[in-house]
Amino acid sequence: MSVAPSYSENLDFAKSIRFKTQAFIGGRYVDAVSRKTFDTVSPIDGKVIASVAETDSADVDIAVAAARRAFDSGTWRNMAPARRKAIVLKFAELIEKNARELALIDVLNMGKPIKDALAIDLPGTVTAFRWYAEAIDKVYDEICPSDPGRIVLVMREPVGVVACVVPWNFPLMMMAWKVAPALVTGNSIVLKPAEQSPLSALRIAELAAEAGIPEGVFNVLPGFGPTAGQALGRHPDVDCLAFTGSTEVGKLFLKYSGESNMKSVNLECGGKSPHIILADAPDIKTAATTAAWSVFMNQGQACNAGTRLLVEESVRDEVVETIASVGRSATVGNPLDPNTQMGAVVDKTQLDRILGYVEEGKSAGAKLVLGGERRHEESGGYFMAPTLFDGVDNTMRIAQEEIFGPVISTIAFKDSDEALKIANDTIYGLYAAVWTRDINKAFKFVRGVRAGAVNVNTYSGGDITTPFGGFKQSGHGRDKSLHAMEKYTALKASCIVIS
Fold it and tell me: Any alpha helices (H) in 169-309, and if so which ranges?
């Protein structure tokens, strides 16, 4: 999966793909009850690539009912863990076998470079399903240290019907981070992919059935947030909802829960992550290059992107110049080309949002060092240049609001105390990193930054074994690691009196 074929090979393969466009409910593909469809547009050229079933509350009712029947029947949740493991491992194997097709579907659907889809997204998806499959029979229940005349058991049981509402920036991997732990713990799933990128989820559903996941256990509903998404959030028979997306929508799901059945809501929302470079960083050029790609990768469409670059004043010029050099040499182009480093932004709405923030930054007095413009407009696609602002004040909108594009805001500081204060001056708390040789300074930031992950001398945050999630308005609950399984299970205590 790590070697990308040539552009012409990718183009030929892409033309041969026949997309699944119906909803997947109860083990089969079906039209929306309303018979409505919506167009999914490729950001590569702005052209329609498929018309997909537009599900709404009526379809949600049917899918949730199918999931509930499957759960109540016990065909999945009461299956021996070893058997569930074998099925989920088969699912992972089928995803890997069809990795090139799935990668190309996401490239066409949301514009990410094919080399990233093959090297990051698909391996990450396969790894998630395999890792959680292997974890099925390695999580034990407990016996409480109680009175000798009784045995008190603490058992973990599946919560029931889980709605997974996932974003478009990593369509398959974000799906796997939620579906895999929810599935292996015995739940039934209703997955709503983002309306911008529904096609890979619909193809995955077919692979789930082929792997042997029973009818009704895995359902996929393409549709829009205000209709299908809201219906899932308000549905009285959904027991748990897991969401990755904007803080604004995350708050709506909390509201929907309170107005319906108080379903548990697990949120991984926005970020405005501080990437902090101290003057005593082990290697300034490496730190700056990493800072650049922490934002330019995936066109900046990542919730944990280090978009607030905090730099100690004495090394600021060197850092800014290094990032500008990286941006100038970055290849922005057709994501089907394996040489492309930055592909297309997901749609015109997102591109316009990014360009609007560029204008806001300039108006506020920030210095535009690099980029700021649309690229390859003649293609009909939505391409954005890597963009760097310097002289940014942390009170500016470009420093406080999530842009979700390849835009870096450089903020200078005098010492580590000021850096820590700036780092925490945000409503978000998802991710952070600091570069320093000083272990005391490193731990000062690890302990002091209010974020779900604080890395030192790297921006990558571990693998599937590492929990991922945030503080403050970045949400609550964790994806990845064994901790993710906690979200999809409920504790049950049983006291047995010994006569």
Answer: 171-184, 199-211, 230-234, 247-259, 284-296
* CA 34 distance to own-chain centroid: 30
Residue from 264, 227, 270, 272 nearest 250 by CA: 270
Q: Using only the alpha carbons of the chain, give its radius of gyration.
A: 23
Residue with tokens 């509350």: 57
Q: What pLDDT, on a 0 to 100 scale, did the predictor assign at position 462?
A: 85
Distance CA(397)–CA(394), nearest Å, equals: 8
Q: How far is CA 149 from CA 85, 142, 145, 493, 499, in A?
A: 37, 17, 11, 16, 8
Looking at 268, 269, 312, 402, which residue is catalytic?
Answer: 268
Q: Where in the chain is the domain with CATH 3.40.605.10?
A: 7-268
**What pLDDT, in 10s, does the model give residues 105-152?**
999 999 999 999 999 999 999 999 999 999 999 989 999 999 889 999
- Is there a catalytic annotation at residue 195? no
Roughly what angle, to the nearest 10 degrees, separates helices 171-184 and 199-211? 30
Residue pair 135/86 in contact by the 8 Å Cβ criterion: no
Residue 266: both structure tokens together: 């697990």
Q: Can you name the CATH fold of 7-268?
A: Aldehyde Dehydrogenase; Chain A, domain 1 (3.40.605)
Tens-digit pLDDT profile for residues 28-67: 999 999 999 999 999 999 999 999 999 999 999 999 999 9
- Positions of CATH 3.40.309.10 in the chain: 274-463
| 188-192: strand order across its sheet | 28-30, 23-25, 218-220, 188-192, 161-165, 240-244, 264-268, 475-476
Q: What is the pLDDT of residues 223-240, one digit of tens each?
A: 999 999 999 999 999 999
Band of residue 376 on the pLDDT scale cut at 50, 70, 90: very high
Q: Which of 422, 487, 82, 461 is nearest to 278 (CA)?
A: 422
**Range 274-463 has CATH code 3.20.20.30:** no
**Residue of 164, 240, 269, 303 with catalytic role:** 303
- Judge whether 164 counts as a catalytic residue: no
Q: Against a cut of 0.90, is the pTM above it?
A: yes
The confidence score (pLDDT) of residue 1 equals 44
Alpha carbon distance 445, 435 (integer Å): 10
The Cα–Cα gap between 407 and 358 comes to 8
What is the pLDDT averaged over residues 2-23? 90
Which residues, including other chains, have CB under 8 Å from residue 232's CB and lie 6 or more apart?
60, 64, 163, 165, 190, 192, 221, 238, 241
What is the distance between the alpha carbons of residues 407 and 291, in angstroms, rounded to a whole number? 11
Which CA distances in Å does 122 have to 128, 183, 244, 294?
10, 19, 18, 19
Between CA 94 and CA 295 the distance in angstroms is 32
pLDDT band for position 461 (cuts 50, 70, 90): confident
